[in-house]
Specification:
Belongs to the folylpolyglutamate synthase family. Pathway: Cofactor biosynthesis; tetrahydrofolylpolyglutamate biosynthesis. One of its GO terms (biological process) is one-carbon metabolic process. Its EC number is 6.3.2.17. By secondary structure, the chain is an alpha/beta fold. It folds into 2 domains: 298 residues, 3-Layer(aba) Sandwich (UDP-N-acetylmuramoyl-L-alanine:D-glutamate ligase), CATH 3.40.1190.10; 186 residues, Protein-Tyrosine Phosphatase, Chain A. It is built from 21 helices and 17 strands. The longest helix has 21 residues.
Length: 581
């Protein structure tokens, strides 16, 4: 193992420095700010940053955290509290009915499903709103109009309107303020109403039944993507318990669609639909749809996107039918019932050219994304469950093989990994061992150690010490998996590719931040990271020497996975956002 001494010997000092920076950031402008519905004071270059730092206080607001803890033992209180905050913000649940909502939940693929759906309906000329989580680089990504994150000026304007109303009423409500995600959900509803979107696509945060997005009363259609085990402390530790939570978004009389699910999960969804009096259909295979162009091309890579695309097609078609064909009601001619079965099977249909184009044009950063910067190719996927990691590995094998066949010489392969929360990172790392990485690199989801106020990516809910400890645990798990005999099962070997670097056990390294990890891995071969404006963390001679094979390889291939927050931190450095937007 190669371990940066800064992590071990100076971890506490590093953490203290970051905490000091974060706290200073969170206080920017607070004493001078008047929280009201009036226009915020003009502070050139600071107003958006001031908004984000104020928003971040809702991560650590003591009353908000206490509220979350109390509601976990009584989850039904969550929606009651959400209604109260909504009303304090000047909105009503009745107003949300006018948003013509598509509501989507699931464990894996719900964001991609929403992205496909949004692109299809936008291609028809509708003005779309899209609320998703988490964000990768900037929080504005969570609230999109016509596929684009709302601008800083618009975000700032609407933020102060909602924050001001909540702040002005908090004394009459036990000084409570909504927690971070709950506030952003209210803000998204406000933005979509003010911007007069034709429809809003709302991605559930966690679960469904008690998620704060489930304050929606009458969506036009609901969807459930692939279910799996995640967030077990909140949703339960079996697929059946999780399915019960996800089915909580069903509404009486509102059509719902699901991709094919494990037998136990599908049975629970059917029971939930029957109980709520919601018609539920299972989506067909993507290959069952007809198109004049023959096979359908997807803008998102990976075979697992086929089920997401099929779900998006059913959601889009159902929404369009209600909008155009049925006078505001639903048509049912597209469905069939299997004999001797209570399962409703949604029928495939002929895709319009607009639908075909929408599927092909869909983009969803950080999921099966490939970026090439000269000799360095980044494979980014925010997989953070066992099933999503298996899908990530299948995609990586295919894409890496394609790139390696085109290489004129040896390729160095590097894993950059982090995982957060309750996820079983050791189990995910075991899946990755047979991929023949030359280096396994670990770092926390901290963008850079010497940082300006990166408020968009601050997380106050976990300490820096805990993040660094988790990285060290991940590194030990990797070494244990590598030392437990030959784990390189042939089923994961990349076939028909050029040889990688000479076979050897992967070196492991732990870095204190994402930028220092990227700079070491790329060894100056990515001009974006070699920008003199970026701080360079000094490393010892021995660590520098370990990078010789990376300097000598014809190409460097880096798989970045385990956490969407890690992927977002990497994208911040690889694709810096336009500060004017």
């Amino acid at each position: 193992m190669v371990l940066l001494s800064q992590v071990v010997r100076r971890g506490s000092g590093f953490a203290a420095r970051l905490r000091k920076q974060d706290w200073a950031c969170s206080l920017v402008g607070l004493s001078a700010r008047y929280y009201s519905t009036k226009t915020a004071p003009e502070i050139p270059g600071m107003e958006y940053q001031d908004v984000i730092c104020t928003l971040n206080t809702l991560q650590t607001n003591a009353s908000a955290l206490e509220q979350v803890r109390r509601e976990r033992s009584h989850p039904q209180l969550q929606l009651h509290a959400m209604r109260g905050f909504l009303e304090r913000a000047g909105l009503t649940v009745e107003e949300l009915d006018h948003l013509n909502i598509i509501h989507v939940t699931g464990t894996k693929g719900k964001g991609s499903t929403c992205a496909f759906t949004e692109q299809i309906l936008r291609s028809y000329g509708f003005r779309t709103g899209f609320y998703s989580s988490p964000h990768l680089v900037q929080v504005r990504e969570r609230i999109r109009i016509n596929g684009q994150p709302i601008g800083k000026e618009l975000f700032t304007k609407y933020f102060w309107q909602i924050y001001g109303r909540l702040d002005e009423t908090k004394d009459a409500h036990g000084r409570t303020m909504p927690a971070y995600f709950r506030f952003l959900t209210i803000l998204a509803f406000h933005v979509f109403l003010q911007e007069k979107v034709d429809l809003a696509i709302i991605e559930v945060g966690i679960g469904g039944a008690y998620d704060c997005t489930n304050i929606i009363r009458t969506p036009w259609v609901c969807g459930i993507s692939s279910l799996g085990i995640d967030h077990t402390q909140i949703l339960g530790d079996t697929i059946e318990k999780i399915a019960w939570q996800k089915g909580g978004i069903f509404k009486q009389g509102v059509p719902a669609f699901t991709v094919k699910q494990p037998e136990g999960a599908l049975a629970v969804l059917k029971d939930r639909a029957r109980e709520i009096k919601c018609p539920l259909w299972v989506c067909p295979e993507l290959e069952d749809y007809q198109a004049d162009c023959g096979s359908v091309h997807l803008g998102l890579a990976g075979h697992h996107q086929h089920s997401n695309a099929s779900l998006a097609l059913q959601l889009s078609q159902t929404w369009l039918q209600r909008r155009f064909l049925s006078g505001g009601t639903y048509k049912t001619f597209r469905t069939t019932t299997h004999e001797n079965s209570s399962i409703l099977q949604a029928s495939s249909f002929k895709l319009s050219p607009i639908m075909v184009k929408g599927l092909a044009d869909t983009e969803w950063p950080g999921r099966n994304q490939t970026l090439t910067h000269g000799a360095v190719t980044y494979f980014l996927d925010g997989a953070h469950t066992m099933r999503s990691m298996q899908a990530c590995i299948r995609w990586f094998r295919e894409m890496a093989a394609q790139h390696e066949r085109k290489s004129s010489g040896p390729v160095a392969r590097v894993l950059l990994f982090n995982a957060t929360g309750e996820r079983d990172s050791a189990a995910m790392l075991k899946l990755l061992v047979p991929c023949h990485f030359d280096y396994a690199v670990f770092c926390p989801n901290i963008t850079e150690s010497i940082s300006s106020c990166n408020a968009d990516q601050q997380n106050f809910n976990v300490s820096v010490e805990n993040m660094l400890t988790r990285c060290l645990d991940n590194e030990r798990s990797w070494r244990l998996h590598n030392s437990a005999g030959d784990n390189r099962g042939p089923q994961l070997l990349i076939e028909d590719s050029l040889p990688l670097l000479q076979e050897r056990k992967a070196d492991t390294l732990v870095f204190p931040c994402i930028l220092s990890a990227l700079q070491w891995i790329t060894q100056g071969r990515d001009t974006v990271l070699a920008d003199p404006a970026k701080s360079l963390l000094p490393v010892s001679t021995s660590i520098s020497a370990k990078g010789a094979p990376l300097r000598e390889a014809t190409e460097i291939h880096i798989l970045i996975t385990g956490s969407l927050h890690l992927v977002g931190g990497v994208l911040k450095h690889l694709e810096p956002p336009d500060s004017s937007n």
